[in-house]
User: Which sequence fits this backbone?
């Protein structure tokens, strides 16, 4: 089983600029980048045309650490100061469920743990201390 915790920076429409900045400032290398326009369409959440170029998810490698980025999804609020979350990644579905259930106790569910096009189980929860975690289950290959 793998288990990693990565800082995840939620940006307000300037993730591409931030990625370029941290690449240069920290000597990072882009490992992955995908825009909202490159993702499968979801009819329940139509994407405005001007949002298609925004970053849905990106990862840069800085030394031994991966730093993750995303622009906020159109319509979601963004507040400077709390845009840093922690992404918990594991390849164990049961571990994801256990972590999610534990963190949501006396906390707030921002996105229920569910299957997505990029993960068999992904969810977002803010714990009772106000720390927001993204629980990401890696696909089994």
Assistant:
């Amino acid at each position: 089983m793998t288990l990693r915790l990565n800082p995840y920076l939620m940006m307000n429409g300037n993730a591409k600029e931030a990625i370029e900045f941290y690449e240069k400032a920290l000597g990072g290398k882009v490992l992955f980048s995908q825009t909202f326009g490159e993702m499968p369409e979801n009819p329940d959440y139509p994407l405005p045309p001007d949002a298609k170029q925004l970053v849905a998810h990106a990862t840069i490698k800085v030394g031994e650490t991966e730093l993750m980025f995303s622009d906020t999804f159109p319509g979601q609020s963004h507040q400077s100061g709390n845009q840093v979350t922690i992404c918990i990644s594991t390849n164990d579905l049961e571990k994801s469920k256990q972590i999610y259930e534990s963190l949501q106790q006396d906390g707030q569910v921002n996105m229920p743990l569910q299957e997505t096009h990029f993960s068999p189980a992904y969810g977002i929860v803010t714990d009772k201390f106000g720390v927001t975690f993204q629980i990401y289950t890696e696909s089994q290959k």
Q: What stands out?
A: The chain is about 15% helix and 40% strand. The longest helix spans residues 15-26. The beta strands are 3-11, 29-35, 55-62, 65-71, 84-90, 108-114, 122-126, 132-137.
